[in-house]
Amino acid sequence: MGIDLVMIILVLVVGFYMAWNIGANDVSNAMGTSVGSGALTLGKAIFVAAILEFCGAFFLGSSVSETMQKGLVNPTYFAHNPSIFVIGMLSALLATSLWLQLASYFGWPVSTTHAIVGAIVGFGLAAGGSSAIAWGDVGSIALTWVISPVLSGIFSFIIFSILQRKVLYAMNPTYASKKLIPILVGVVLGTFAMSILLGGVHSLKIEFSPLHSLGIAFIIGIIGYLIALIVIRRIHIPETGTLYNKYNLAQQLFSLNKTLKHLQKAKLVAESDTKKEVSDILDSVRLLSASLQEKSGHHKRHSEYETVEKLFSFLQILSACYVAFAHGANDVSNAIGPIAAAMNAIKYKSLSSAANGIPTWLLGFGGLGIVIGLATWGWRVIQTIGRKITELTPTRGFSAEFGAAVTILVASKFGIPISTTHCIVGAVLGVGLAKGISALNLRTIREIVLSWIITIPSAAVTCIIIFYIINALVTL
Amino acid sequence: MLTIAKLFGKSPFSPLQNHMKKVSLCIKKLSEIFQEIENKHFDKIETLVSELSKLEHEADLTKNDIRNHLPKSLFLPITQTQFLELLSIQDSIADKAEEIGNLLLLCPQNSLKVFTTTFQEFFKKNLETFWDARQIVKEFDELLESSFGGIEAEKVKAMVDQTAYREHQADVLKTAVRKEFFGLADTLTPSAFYLWTKLIDEVGSIAHISEKLANQIGVILELK
Q1: Which of A118, A212, A404, B109 could make an SS bond with A427 (beta carbons 3.0 to 4.6 A apart)?
Q2: Would you tell me which residues 140-199 of chain B have a C-beta closer than 8 angstroms to some C-beta of chain A?
Q3: Per the structure, how many domains does chain B have?
Q4: Where in the sequence is the domain holding B144, given as residue range(s)?
């Protein structure tokens, strides 16, 4: 038991470090833009993120954690010698931590998820050979790594296109956003509730039929809509003159300019008296046009769209919360999955079918690790991201975050470990494709694909090396 | 883990506006030169023209800087070709300003009878067209904000129409100037005749290019 206890403590420590790392580095993806756009202060962002990350991890973290625990490498394959499995999980955690340190030192866009999956598969290959690995599941997980960023990109593209049609291209953007925002709040809350309830919440042992969850989600959406409706009515926006008139002015001006053009032509071909008359009319039209131009405030800038962005900043807070929740749900497994696997192996001594399920306290443990990581280091990263990304204004930020969050949460529900960072990158690109962002660095995509290809074998090889070292130490 | 931060490239649109600002400095200098000719302070012209050359060179440097720092991997809401086209049109206005300055330097003083009020009016109309286009370039921030649509696009569309109309006015004046000029042609030396023919064309091209710039921006707009 002595060596097992040491192993368990080691696994817990390294697993906690992994959770800390996730909290320190990746939470910024969710909250950074809200801080950057000024929708949230740093303190509020950390507070909100901490709560939602923890909730996500605690309530929805089990599906993906179970995949990590027994979906990649078949635990029963090691039933004859569970300690090998424990050592394997320990080395997977160590290899991933090591790899992440290296990556963040060099600034590579490495995904924690890819590293841990690569490491676990590496251990499975080394210790159990090719047949210990559930290749079908591993293959489909790898496939979703490509699909998920694309999918969040498509979602975000659609969401931003809707915002363009309904708000940015509207005659009166402020009015349009006041109308659209409550609906969007309802939609966000509804999908949020839907994605949590569908299939039940394992850690609370709640089960709903699909129809029930749809109904509850609908009710929550309606409540959200009504609350947002009341709140948005209370927000006072200093209206810059009569906005509808402002648009009409633009059209009047346009027509007047045309009139001027034609009058000019008439003046050119007209003779004596008519010419004089035409030129008189021309002068008065010109005067009218000039005074209208003055009124339309062609030189008054940054009014309308600034108000729109301000209104959308409330919505961006909501979508950022959604991302934080989804992130907690998906990424806690990176730390917790291997721990659960190792603990079950020791607890049951033989890895039979009895070994399954993620203990609820372990989810809480992982959530706590994320929160501590956020509190001790993550806030710095949020600050940095916030300062660097000023491009992602609330309308853009909302579109990207909502698209990514839906994708991540759906994946979490199905127990698929995906990279949240890559999903957000895909989502931002989606907004960019809809002409939402002034400059996107496409080299990042190449870097991501490259690191994707490099991470998996590297993590696997590192894991195998560590596994052999620890194994040698233990058998000594 | 600053992957997301790395995703955002440096926007080339504010450098583009910066370049247009430098071009507008050239145009301002050119109108100073015209002012001095009108006031018959011919001794000042040479220094002004050399200042103009310097400004044009600065605009050139800015242009090259933007071009050289526009990686192929940068994804913009407009195509890179469209962007570079805008930059190149802007820069050609500065080139024209310098060219006009240099031509004015060569004009013999006794040929200044061509420099009539009509000619000055023609020149001013050309500059007005330029300032219209300059105003449109200033709208780029807002255009990006509205992703090239909506009331902002309508507003810019109206401004483009305005520029086009002014260009037309400049063309009308050009005809008037030519008429006057050919009336005086017999009293001019062949070299002065050649110089002034060229000058009229070059001044007229400012409105021309400004309209082209405005139209090019008009093409980007997402209008229903």
Answers
A1: A404
A2: 141-142, 144-155, 157-159, 161-162, 165, 168-169, 172
A3: 1
A4: 12-220
